[in-house]
Design brief:
- Helices cover about 40% and strands about 30% of the residues.
- With about 400 residues, the protein is an alpha+beta fold.
- The longest helix is centred in the middle third of the chain and has 38 residues.
- It has 3 domains: about 80 residues, PAS domain (Beta-Lactamase, 2-Layer Sandwich); about 120 residues, PAS domain (Beta-Lactamase, 2-Layer Sandwich); about 180 residues, no CATH class.
- The protein has 10 helices and 15 strands.
Length: about 400
């Protein structure tokens, strides 16, 4: 034993009366007799075997050693050992194990990620392609790993921007952008892309990791929201135009308190038309619901003096506004001067459906009347309408007669 070994074990330099067993912890002695000694007898040498020695204070000292033995008549006569401290090697092994574990965790994270994850080396060859990438783009991993990433996913329009983004990522920038990639079957997919360079221990770039998130539904929702805003703006302008017309017409016939009362009632009628549209799909109004709403401004639509009857019908937006206002004016006249101004008065509102009537499609109405002593009198309003089934809306319209 040289002075360095003695110093490692905390022993005096002149220690020479100790045998090998005295320097080994009990479990290691057993291991030596059952494994290492037989191996020396057979092979005559040991290479890089991990062995703990026993320090003078009773603690263990980790080493790895090389050994060779002199064998005479089948017996080990002498063993020469070169012993190396285990600290540096053990630290290296622990770091290696830790990195392997981190690598395994990373692989699990990539494999289970809901985002498409693709990694390429510095030659832009695909090295990683997870399950989410297969689900998003339609390519199996084994068909693309080892292939250039530029051979798939890119359209002619996006190759230039892809190269620019890739160059930015290679400089260390994390690039995030919304773009389009091509599915295996050829259809475009709106995606949110992220690119980041991967560095080795020396700080050199050896690849790029790309992640993709499908934003097609978000893009569709944004487009629908824009269309709804445009539609809302259009309808608001239409309603304001109608309000202006109502105000002018009311002002011609009424003034003072009567003007305010009549204008309020007519605006309430207009609001009822809008509510009837909203209760459906915003494009059509249910005729029965519209009738009850217009009567409710002046009388109880459930009163026994009122009768409403007809098939289920949907009116277009233009027709519902015109008919709603017309019904309101008729109800107003009935309450002030007609049947509903009398205790025993009754009103019946009936509608039927007829085919083939010539109509004024600009207003969604057709008139059929007769001439009386006091001028033209309407015997009924004919309204282009559809059945309640939405599938019937694309068919040639029937005509509804309201009497």
């Amino acid at each position: 034993m040289n002075a360095r070994m003695a110093g490692w074990l905390g022993l005096a330099d002149d220690t020479c009366d100790l045998n090998l067993h005295d320097l080994l912890p009990r479990p290691v002695r057993i291991y030596y007799e059952t494994h290492l000694r037989p191996l020396l007898l057979v092979e005559g040498a040991l290479d890089e075997v991990s062995v703990d020695f026993l320090r003078g204070d009773g603690t263990r000292f980790g080493t790895y050693m090389n050994a060779s033995a002199d064998i005479i008549d089948g017996q080990v006569e002498r063993i020469r050992m070169a012993v190396f401290r285990h600290d540096a090697r053990k630290s290296f092994e622990e770091e290696l194990i830790a990195r392997r574990r981190e690598s395994d965790v990373f692989k699990v994270l990539v494999a289970s990620s809901p985002q498409a994850v693709i990694s390429v080396d510095d030659g832009m060859i695909v090295r990683t392609w997870n399950t989410a990438a297969t689900n998003l783009f339609g390519y199996a991993a084994d068909t693309l790993i080892g292939e250039p990433v530029g051979s798939v996913l890119l359209s002619t329009d996006t190759r230039g921007t892809f190269a620019t983004s890739l160059a930015r990522a290679m400089t260390g920038e994390v690039v995030r952008e919304e773009t389009v990639r091509i599915h295996r079957d050829g259809h475009p997919i709106a995606v949110e892309a992220s690119m980041a360079a991967v560095h080795d221990e020396l700080g050199q770039v050896f690849g790029v990791v790309m992640t993709y998130t499908n934003i097609s539904q978000r893009k569709t929702a944004e487009a629908e929201a824009r269309n709804l805003l445009l539609e809302l703006n259009h309808r608001a302008k239409n309603v304001l135009s109608i309000v202006q017309v109502i105000a002018r017409q009311t002002g011609r016939l009424h003034d003072g308190p009567d003007f305010h009362a009549m204008l309020s009632q007519r605006l309430a009628s207009l609001i009822s038309n809008q509510e009837s549209l909203v209760h459906k799909d915003g494009r059509n109004a249910d005729l029965a619901q519209l009738v009850r709403a217009q009567f409710s401004h002046l009388v109880d639509p459930l009163a026994p003096t009122l009768t409403f009857n007809g098939p289920d019908l949907l009116l277009s937006r233009e027709a519902s506004q015109a008919i709603g206002m017309a019904i309101f004016e008729l109800v107003t006249n009935a309450v002030k001067y007609g049947a509903l101004s009398q205790p025993a008065g009754r009103v019946s509102l009936l509608w039927t459906v007829s085919d083939g009537l010539e109509s004024d499609t600009r207003h969604g109405l057709a008139g059929r009347g007769r001439t009386g002593r006091h001028g033209a009198q309407t015997s009924g309003l004919w309204i282009p309408s559809h059945g309640a089934d939405p599938r019937e809306r694309n068919r040639r319209p029937n005509y509804t007669r309201v009497r």
